[in-house]
Amino acid sequence: MAPAHVSASGFAQHVDWTPLGPVLVPAALAVAVLVADLFLPPARKVLLGWITAAGLLAAGLALIPLRGGPSATFCAIRSDSPHTADCSYVTDHFTLAVQALVLGGALLTALLSISTLDDMPAGEYWFLLLSSVTGAVLLPAARDLATLVVALEVTTLPAFALVGLRRDDRHSSEAALKFFLTSVTATAVTLLGVSFVYASSGTLYLAQIGSALPLTDAGPLYTVAHVGVALTLVGFAFKLAVAPFHFWVPDTYAGAPLPIAAYLSVVGKAAGFSGLILLVVVAFRPYAHAWGPAIGVLAALTMTVGNVGALRQRPDVPRGAVRLLAWSSIGQAGYLLVPMAAAASADEPAHEIGTTVAYALMYAVVNLGAFAVVALVERTAPLSRLTDYRALHGRRPAAALALAFFLLCLAGLPPGVIGLFAKVAVFSTAVGTQHGWLAVVMAVNVVIALVYYLRWTALLFARAPEPVPAPAGEAGDAEAAVARTPVALTAAVALTAAAGLALSGAPQLVLRFAQGSLL
Length: 519
Description:
By secondary structure, the chain is mainly α. Strand 1 (71-78) and strand 2 (81-91) form a beta hairpin. The chain has a two-stranded antiparallel ribbon with strand order 1-2. The radius of gyration is 23 Å and the shape is globular. Helix 6 (170-201) runs antiparallel to helix 8 (220-239) and helix 13 runs antiparallel to helix 15 (397-411). The chain contains 20 helices and 2 strands.
């Protein structure tokens, strides 16, 4: 596709600002919030959270004008074809679906955060969150290796500081350090792989790489290309917590502020998977015979490690609820990889990629809802143990029903129809290709996951333990915390529950929305 505004110089020239709207809004808002923080008194800093939420909603609305068809900017005319251009930023159906997921997840993260910033600097928090969102929105639109890597790092770098923003919390600092060291290693591996890919193909544009990679073992470039592809995929595997590169996730999620754990599990994962999809389906398509089986093995290993890890969580361990969700997110990443492995043997991978995006949309809604209920319970049970959820239906019946619904969606059981539909869609991609063995592994893991999801669900409606008399002051504080449930937190639970119910009523809409062809 040749955009209307491309000069013959071969360099990036006139910029079409309309496709950049979803990226520019959070970027500009990040600066505005940081400056506004200097002038707001401490009692008014909560306004920064509501301004952020409104800005993210505006960024989502900026997607509406882009529905008419593919658009691109930062383009350069090919020297060998005056009527063809290579573009660094493209918005197509795939891009819009992922950007909608990212902005929706970021909006819910903002609602979770508004009531949990008492011990963190508000201006820095919102600035870092919006900076990370900017990178996450840019990533699915990136169509060259340089933009892809920069977007990935803009997404990740602010997250280090967000994880460790509780300066007096040793666990937060430890989690940030583990996250930082792992991510730096992943970045180094990714950059080395990208440099090898560039050396063997001679271009940074993803579409050109697919036709420029050497296809026959006719020289050293063939080996360099394969090593580059392998290293790039390993780097992304670190970022996405794909087993065996998952070891940083449980401690990082448990030590991070709860909204940031939710953000990493949904928004960070969605952005990273969009980059991986662009690499394997567009740039590395000629090597599908190599990365297809590799992703299949990683999918099987990831879902097994994640589900077994979640199954082994003890109910009386502090932060046990967050750790279970962390291990669950690893298992869910394995399911997300299944259609990508199947895409390797598909003539047109749009259906498989659409299935991955549809599953990510389902997972984002219900996982953020589960984190929202955890944030609600943490107000009266700050240790966040699984045992703190025993008989939740007696104390907070609406929260118990919502969490039960979210857990059943993650398990793929009615009334969580959207979870069942998404799992069946993923399962069908494996059955319909040469990955029948992967479908068997997935079926076994779904059964394993049922155990810990249903175990937690049963706790919500179990008989309450014998009450232990508490000091009058502590009892009064707990009752006051229940009575003072923040509006933003209530809105987050209500929005995710409503979205989950709506999607369960018409689950096919998710798959129809997510499917589309890559540009």
